[in-house]
Here is the input.
Amino acid sequence: MREGALRNVEDVVVGEKNPERLSEILETCGSGGLLFVPRSAEAEEALRAAESAGLRARVVVGSEEEAVESFRSGEVDLLIGAARPYGVLVRGINLPERIRYSVFYGAPRFEVGLSSVEDMSEGAVSSVLSVLSSSLGARARGLAARIRRGDEEALVSGKELLREVLGDRERLEAAARSAGVMVEAEPEPRIVIPDVKTYIQGSGRTSRLYPGGITKGISFLLEEDPLKTAFLRRASVYEVEFKDAGEVDVEGVLREVDEDRKRVREAWRHPEKMRGLIRTAVFVVESPNKARTIARFFGRPTKRSIDGIPIYEVLTGDLLLTIVATGGHIVDLTTEGGFHGVEVSDGMYVPVFVTRKRCIKCGHQFTDHDRCPQCGSAEVFDSRVVVDVLRKLAVEGEVLIIGTDPDTEGEKIAWDVAQLAGPLAREVWRAEFHEVTKRAIGEALRSLHEIDERRVRAQIVRRVEDRWIGFELSTLLQRIFGKKNLSAGRAQTPTLGWIIEAYSKSRKRKRVWIVSGEGFSLRTEEELPTGATKALIREASGAVEEVPPPPPFTTDSMLREASRILKMEAYRAMAVAQDLFELGLITYHRTDSPRVSDAGLRVAREVLGGEFTPRRWGEGGAHECIRPTKPISRGELIAYVREGILPVGDRLRREHLALYHLIFSRFVASQAPAARVEVRSYEISIGEKTLSLDRRVRAVEPGWLRWYPYGLRVEGPLPTGEVEVRVTTRKVPEGWPLTHGEVIALMKERGIGRPSTYATILRKLLERRYVVERGGRLIPTGLGMRVYNYLMERFSDLVGEQRTREMEERMDEVESGKAELMEVLDELFREIRGKVAARAGGAAH
Here is the structure.
C-alpha cells in the first residue's frame, strides 16, 4: 500500500526548533507518544526536553523489545528513536490503542555528501538521481532506471555522477535549486533531501486500521526555514497538508484521539460490536481519469471491470469505496416525439430523456438512432451500459454517493444517476468538491448533502432552451441556405455579431503619424511633418505609484490570458484545464468567483513565505478561484513527475505545463505584495506640436511582478533634451479583429454565456465555419455574415443581445429559486413557437 494511503492524522507544523518548544508540546500531549530525531546525536537533547515535561522517556536503538513492552504497559510515556526509513519506531511498532501522537524534532531527511557516496545502497543512489534529474537530465534518469533494474554497471556510473556533482559547488547548487532540495556546505558539501516518506510512515503509527475504522492521530513537525518550507512543499505532493500550530485546537484533537483509543480497546474486547461499522459505498464521478486519481489517494486500488466499465475499490477507513465514472452525461433529450423532445399538454412541459450514444468511430454524440447520423457507423457505445453497471453496483453497496462536478451540469448528472440507480440503494447522497485532492475528497465524504433540485431545474431549462432555439432556427437556416451543417443559438448569435462588428471596423482605415526615436515609438493622429527631424523631450512630472496585483483567475480571465499569452484557443484551454483538474493539480476551472479559500491561502503562504500578503478576493459561497492545489512550481512539478511521486503517466504535455504555470503564477501574484512603479510624464515637442507620453520607467519594488510579469510593461526612461527622431505616416485599421480572449471578455462583460459555456459557444462558431481563425484573430466568413444578417433581420428580438441577456437572467432565477421551471418553459415555448412560425421564410442574401 502506498505511504500515507490510510492515515487520519492532523499534521501540525511548528516553525521553531528548540528544546523549550519541544517540552511545551510534550507536556500538552502527555503519555503515549513517539518522538523522532533526524540524527542520533539529538536524542539526548530530546530526552532532556521530555524529562523537563515530566514524562518518562526511553531512547530506542535497534529493536529493544523490553522498551516497547514498557511503553505498551504504560511504564514509559514516550519512546525516542531515529527518523530513518527502517527505524524500529518508524516501521516496527503497531500499538493503535497506545500511540496517541508523534513529534518530529527536525524534519526527516536524506543527506548525501562526498564521503557517503560509496556506501550508498542501490535504492538510495537511484532515488537521489531521480530527484536531481530535472537538472542533470536524461543521463541521470536513465541511470536511475537501470539501477532499479539491478544493473551493477549503472550503479558504478551513478555514484561517479554524484561525486562529479558534489565536487562542483556551482553545479551542485544549480541541481538543488531545480529539484527543490537544499545544499549544506559544512562539514562537507552535501545534498539535503526532505524525506517525506519516513515522516508519513512514522506519523502513521498514530493512525491505524482497526475493526471500527482508522484511529485519529496528531503529529508535530518542529523545523525552521529553509528546510521547513522545502519539506512542506514536498509533503504536499504526497497529499500531506500541514496546518500551522496556531490554526489547530490541539486539546480538541487530543480529545478525539482519546475517544478513538476507547473504541479500539472496546473493539479488542467485543469484536462482535464492530461488525457493520465499515460501510460499503459506491462513489460516482464523471471522468475515468478523475476516478483513477481519487482511487490512488487510498493506496493501491483493486481494479475490476463490469461490461467494459473500469471499477476501482479502496478502503478509506470507515468506507469500502467502489469508484466508477459515468463518462459524462448518461441521458439527453430525445429527438423523437413532443416538441423537440418535450411533451406539451395543458400548460405542462415534460422533457423526455433517453440514454446518450457515442459513435466510436467519429465521436459524435446522439440519442435516437442505432447508427451514427454523422458518419453512418454501427460501432456505437450506448450509455445504457453505464446505467446497468451503476444499478448493479447500487445493489452491492449500502450507500450511493454521487461526486460529479460542482455546477449545474454536474448536478443534472447526479440527479440522473439518482433517478436511474438510486432506487436500488439504501441511501443516496451528493458529495461536492472543488479540487481533486485527498483532503478535499475526505471533506466531501464527511459533508454529504442532498441533490440541489434547483440546480437541476436550471440545467433542464438551459438544455430545453438550447434544443428548442437550436432545432427551430437550425432547421430554418438549413432550408433557407441549403446547407446541413448550419445551426443557431441564442448566445451564439450576439457573439457572432461582435466578431463581425470588430472585423468591419478593422476594414476601415485611418491615418496616423509615428514618431520613432532611441528607445521609444509614439503614435498620434495629429498631423506632423514627416522625415528626420529634431524633437525636444521634457520630463513634465514623475511619481511612484502603488500597483495592486490582479485577482486570481476565474474562467473568463483564464481563457483571456491563455489566448493572449499562450496563444491557446478557448476550447483547447478548457480541455487542458479539465485534465489539470482531474489530475488534482488545479481547482475546478468553471467558476466566476475569484474567492480564495483557507486551503488556497495555505498554498500561497508556503510559496511566498515572508512576502505572503493574504487577500480573499471575495467572501462566502462554495465556489472559489482557479488556483494550484499544491505549492509547487512548474519546475518542481516536472521534477516530481520524473521522480514518480506524481503518478500522472503521459498525460502532462507541454500545453498542460504552460497553462499550469500561468495559473500558478497568477495565483501566487494575487497573494504577493503590491508593486511600486515609477511613472514619468513626458512632453515631446516637434515644431509647433507638443505630444504627451506617460511611461512606466522602473519597478521600484517589483512585488507581484516577479511572479506575473505579463500584466504591466516597464519600458525605461526616455532621453531628455533635443534628440533625433524620424516621423512617418501610414494608414492603419481603426480596430482589430477579436481574439479568443477578447470575445470571452465581451461575454463576461455583457452577460452572455456562463463559465461552462464560453468556450463551447466559440467552438460552435468555428465548427459551423461562421468564423475562421487567422493569426490568432477571429474573422467572419461570408456564410457567417449572411446567417447573422438573416437572423437579425427576422429574429433580433429572439436572439439579439438584450433578449439573450434577459433569458440568461431568467435561467439564473430558476437556479436561485426566484422563478418556477414550468413558468419559464411556458414563456420560452410561446416565444419560440410564435416568433419562429410567424417569421419563417424569405431568401438568403
Observations:
- Residues 555 and 591 are 6 Å apart (CA to CA).
